[in-house]
Amino acid sequence: MTALESRPWLSAYADGVPAEIDEVTQTLPEMLAATVARHGNRTALEFFGATTTYRELGESVDRAAEGLRRLGVTAGDRVAIVLPNCPQHVIAFYAALRLGAIVVEHNPLYTARELRHQFEDHGARFAIVWDKTVDTIADFPTDLRVERIISVDVTEALPRGKRMLLRLPIAKARESRAQLTAKPRAKVALPWSKLVRHRPLSRRAAGPTLDDTALLQYTSGTTGIPKGAVLSHRNLRANAMQGRAWVPGLVEGEETFYGVLPLFHAYGMTLCLTFAMSIGAKLVLFPKFDVGLMADAAKKSPPTFLPAVPPIYDQLARAASRGAIDLSRVRFAISGAMSLPVATVRRWEDTTGGLLVEGYGMTESSPVALGNPMGPSRRPGTVGVPFPSTDIRIVDPDDPSADREPGEEGELLLRGPQVFSGYWRRPAETADALLPGGWLRTGDIAVVSPDGFVTIVDRLKELIITGGFNVSPSEVEDTLHAHPDVEAAAVVAAPRSSGGEEVVAAVVLRDGAELDVEGLRDFCRTRLAAYKVPRRIVAVDDLPRSLIGKVLRRQVREQLLARD
């Protein structure tokens, strides 16, 4: 028995959190149907003030499912969804699942090249697409021609008054409308409004089973090559149950979640599309992060649970401190996708009075696998402890059969009901990711304390090796972030002319600050070993980030190398 097999972290769980979740018995459509039965009159969705009850949502899902069935969608078909956050996205997601089809989520702002790569991989014949992106899909080469494209105008989900305002012949209205909708050139698309005009799908129609694939979620993983993670109904339902168990203070049928994270991302999908729906929460949807939009929504429907990322928490806390938004009702917030600075936690909790904890996961684990307890035992600076029904190991990256002891660095492995079954049609990559016994290799280097709290040191593939020493980019970035002149930083490896790598930093300076390279290096020397101090520091206007705000180190490296 290893030091972790006794689950020492259970003593840190918040009151009421179980060691194991119950057996998974519902597919996602069955989960939604059960919520509709319990909370039919409760508001399920809110979008710019327009509301949809759970009963109306259930009926819309059944109508859309019938429309898809008439188009020829059957069990096992891939149905691509290329939409921003909007009510139609939620309906399309559950409608496709209701037929036993496989949802494939896509970023609607991807380039044609990025979308084409994914469509080549999954081969979807049906696509439900934002009208601003319809032409991109319609222009695919003949060998990728999607049989049916359903075009979604998100403004149809707005309140009537707001739709009328968008039609006014003034510049501001035209600009707002252009951000939300566009008339496709292609005439091949079926309008969403026609798809949902059918009678509801018969309740006797066969649905999926727990072990059927529900979702293909594309991820770059540790290789940088996008792959479709195969997630079953059992995986996704289990993760929603784990999330519910983690926050026992949530009240069934009375919570308001803010859907500011993109639903096409694994994090937003689980916290909003499945977790929120499983407890009858009101889900307030935002097509993009905007403090003003959220402040307006908070006047009518103040949030009580907010999943987001550190930059969003920082901006919201600052806005709340100057009275621009009321966050006093937010009791729980969970951060993911990137390291959560302790300073952000303090600022958020001081401003709102609610709890902010960091979680950890990856697309391959549906995605959440660890979290800080929602209570006094939380430990800012760590990603917390394993979720119920989840086990971890820390192993030698070069020999995953060799366990590391608490306090020693190693690769983090995960096991639990939320762990995926593999990558879509990529057996070699699947074999690399999944080890005997159901263990998932995360590609993250971590340290676990004797009582089970995990600290992520860095990505296995992003470690910088200089002079034979390993350097964690995150450690150097955290040091630079502590300097009063630095707003943001990204640390990457650059090749040396003599061979090997050197540490290079790109920094965004605070307003009014000037770059003092030697001053920053001296600051780092007081906190880091000499080999970790950046050899070069470059000032940049901004850092490339993903749509959820994560710094894209690979792009930073490419930009810095292009400047040399």
Automatic annotation (TrEMBL):
The keyword Ligase applies. Residues 393-407 have a biased composition (Basic and acidic residues). InterPro entries: AMP-bd_C, AMP-bd_C_sf, AMP-binding_CS, AMP-dep_synth/lig_dom, ANL_N_sf, ATP-dep_AMP-bd_enzyme. CDD domains: FC-FACS_FadD_like. Gene3D superfamilies: 3.30.300.30, N-terminal domain of ligase-like. Keywords: Ligase. Its EC number is 6.2.1.3. Residues 475-550 form the AMP-binding enzyme C-terminal domain. One of its GO terms (molecular function) is long-chain fatty acid-CoA ligase activity. It comes from the Bacteria. Residues 385-409 are annotated as: Disordered. Residues 34-424 form the AMP-dependent synthetase/ligase domain. The keyword Phosphoprotein does not apply. This is Long-chain acyl-CoA synthetase. It comes from Microbacterium paludicola. The lineage of its organism: Bacteria, Bacillati, Actinomycetota, Actinomycetes, Micrococcales.
